[in-house]
Amino acid sequence: MKARVKWVENALFLGESGSGHVVAMDGPPESGGKNLAARPMETLLIGMGGCTAFDVVHILRKGRHEVRDCEVQLEAERADTDPKVFTKIHIHFVVKGHGLTDKAVARAVELSAEKYCSASIMLGKTAAITHDYEIAEG
């Protein structure tokens, strides 16, 4: 896997993935940024959310569960001093589908957290990560 990050101006950077997709990152005005895009650490948190959401949907669909929607809401706390790593992350899944069971969703979340989500497992080295979920019929 490869990526490239290019400085544009002030605190604005463009990251390009090896697959050719571009992500903008910027800082707040107090750091010379213009607040035009997410901060790099926000991007990291979003990436973790995408990784675990992908796993949960994939696991449920592979088990032939009818998933219609999956939203992951993340809240993180960071250390007060440098390096300001994530120290706590809470992940709340809202999974929507027809006939989904607590057992199936709980198992999918557990498998993602403990076996498949590389981002969660990596960030878990510095942060206490908690999970919960809700199931919506539909």
Automatic annotation (TrEMBL):
Signal peptide: none annotated. InterPro entries: KH_dom-like_a/b, OsmC/Ohr_fam, OsmC/Ohrsf. Gene3D superfamilies: 2.20.25.10, 3.30.300.20. SUPFAM superfamilies: OsmC-like (SSF82784). PANTHER family: PROTEIN YHFA. NCBIfam families: PRK10738.1. This is Putative redox protein. The lineage of its organism: Bacteria, Pseudomonadati, Pseudomonadota, Gammaproteobacteria, Methylococcales.
